[in-house]
């Protein structure tokens, strides 16, 4: 199997495209805007892909979830259409859609940011479980990496190499005693929900005032992020995993790479990568024709 599934979904033919069985909705705060957002995730027909719709806008409000629609990678991934309609912080939801096996969906949001919920993909995964998943008539498509592609920026890098399946090996190294160096490897046949989906975003208390001054992190709280202070982790419940920080970086990476428009077959190796490098990698893959599109066997 080339994509991660939950045990409850094992009877689904993973060679076929998938969508939700029913509409599901949620409401929550945007981590950067601090504004309450309502979101509705709906089924979509085969070959539709993932498309966001700004339901608060009357026209020109559809935004395909594709790498070449990314307009900002500062602290999150933001996409926009040619008319200026945009939606940000899409990476946690995109990762949940990948991990749940969803190829096609329409996502209505009545604001410019996806709700952060608890800072992980967990709430979105549970919504998709609540909806159920249905197989569609069309074969699933894959982006097959045909030759190695690398993006480097100072001490950061991300590489895509040919492989028969999908995996992400990620290394982080923070100059902070509560994070330090961490590494983790996730394979497509691992359980996404338990291994990656619950890992939360994180930030440093010392950076909060600056981020708010530039219009970011206005909705950040201990309910939707791991907060790291001078004396350690401020969240009373502590960490969900000993290495939750690097697992969340993998969560972000998977969500960003799902903007390829299909699942990737390839081995991803990342060192200190973030939204910018993740997106640059996709641009380079398609610009250099280092991948081909195939259908499931």
TrEMBL record:
Swiss-Prot/TrEMBL keywords: Hydrolase, Lipid A biosynthesis, Lipid biosynthesis, Lipid metabolism, Metal-binding, Zinc
SUPFAM superfamilies: Ribosomal protein S5 domain 2-like
Enzyme Commission number, as recorded: 3.5.1.108
Pfam families per the UniProt record, alphabetical: LpxC (PF03331)
Pathway info: Glycolipid biosynthesis; lipid IV(A) biosynthesis; lipid IV(A) from (3R)-3-hydroxytetradecanoyl-[acyl-carrier-protein] and UDP-N-acetyl-alpha-D-glucosamine: step 2/6
A molecular function (GO) term: UDP-3-O-acyl-N-acetylglucosamine deacetylase activity
Ranges in a coiled coil: none
Catalytic reaction annotation: a UDP-3-O-[(3R)-3-hydroxyacyl]-N-acetyl-alpha-D-glucosamine + H2O = a UDP-3-O-[(3R)-3-hydroxyacyl]-alpha-D-glucosamine + acetate
GO annotation, cellular component aspect: membrane
GO biological-process terms attached to the record: lipid A biosynthetic process
NCBIfam families, sorted: lpxC (TIGR00325)
Family per similarity comment: Belongs to the LpxC family.
Protein name: UDP-3-O-acyl-N-acetylglucosamine deacetylase
GN (gene name): lpxC
């Amino acid at each position: 199997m080339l994509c991660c599934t939950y045990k409850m979904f094992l009877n689904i033919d993973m060679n076929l495209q998938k969508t939700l069985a029913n509409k599901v909705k949620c409401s929550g705060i945007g981590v950067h805007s601090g504004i309450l957002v309502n979101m509705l995730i709906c089924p979509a027909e085969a070959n539709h892909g993932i498309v966001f719709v700004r339901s608060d806008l009357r026209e020109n409000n559809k935004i395909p979830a594709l790498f070449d629609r990314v307009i900002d990678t500062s602290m999150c991934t933001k996409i926009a259409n040619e008319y200026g309609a945009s939606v940000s912080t899409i990476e946690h939801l995109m990762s949940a859609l990948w991990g749940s096996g969803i190829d096609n969906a329409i996502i209505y949001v009545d604001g410019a940011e996806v709700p952060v919920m608890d800072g992980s993909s967990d709430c979105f995964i549970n919504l998709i479980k609540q909806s159920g998943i249905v197989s569609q008539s069309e074969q699933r498509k894959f982006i097959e990496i045909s030759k190695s592609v690398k993006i480097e920026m100072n001490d950061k890098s991300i590489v895509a190499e040919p492989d028969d399946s999908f995996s992400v090996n990620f290394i982080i190294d923070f100059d902070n005693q509560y994070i330090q160096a961490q590494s983790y490897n996730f394979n497509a046949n691992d359980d996404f929900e338990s291994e990656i989906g619950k890992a939360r975003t994180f930030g440093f208390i010392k950076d909060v005032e600056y981020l708010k001054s530039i219009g970011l992190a206005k909705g950040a709280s201990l309910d939707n992020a791991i907060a790291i202070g001078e004396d350690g982790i401020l969240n009373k419940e502590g960490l969900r995993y000993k290495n939750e920080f690097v697992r969340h970086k993998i969560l972000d990476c998977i969500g960003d790479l799902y903007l390829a428009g299909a699942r990737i077959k390839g081995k991803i190796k990342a060192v200190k990568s973030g939204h910018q490098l993740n997106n640059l990698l996709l641009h380079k893959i398609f610009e250099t024709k280092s991948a081909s599109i195939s259908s499931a066997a």
